[in-house]
Specification:
Structural class: mainly alpha
CATH superfamily: Winged helix-like DNA-binding domain superfamily/Winged helix DNA-binding domain
Number of strands: 0
CATH topology: Arc Repressor Mutant, subunit A
Radius of gyration: 15 Å
Number of helices: 5
Order of helices and strands: HHHHH
Helix content: over 70%
Number of domains: 1
């Protein structure tokens, strides 16, 4: 998941950075909670395609076959989801990468 072209790390890499002590575990928990909250705020169609493709690893073709939606529609929905997530989480991401 890409949050900013200027950032040194992407979000999955951040989970690897914070795992060795209680303070790091607190940061990891905070990131996961913020990400979950942001995903839950997405409109259903965007959330569904984002979760299925990005988090569950399902292909756009498979989602398309199951839902009857065109792959181009699914790509567009995921793009809007990523843009919304990026906007929603950008400040947290910035604060965590400046340390």
């Amino acid at each position: 998941m890409e949050f900013s072209g200027e950032a040194e790390h992407d979000m999955p890499e951040l989970f690897l950075l914070f795992e060795s002590n209680p303070e790091d575990e607190m940061f990891t928990k905070m990131i996961r909670e913020e990400l979950e909250s942001a995903i839950n705020e997405l409109p259903y169609d965007q959330r569904d395609v984002f979760v299925r493709h990005e988090m569950e690893g399902e292909s756009f073709k498979s989602i398309s076959e199951e839902t009857g939606q065109k792959v181009s529609t699914l790509l567009s929905r995921k793009r809007y989801a990523v843009l919304q997530l990026r906007s929603r989480l950008q400040q947290l991401f910035y604060e965590l990468t400046q340390n």
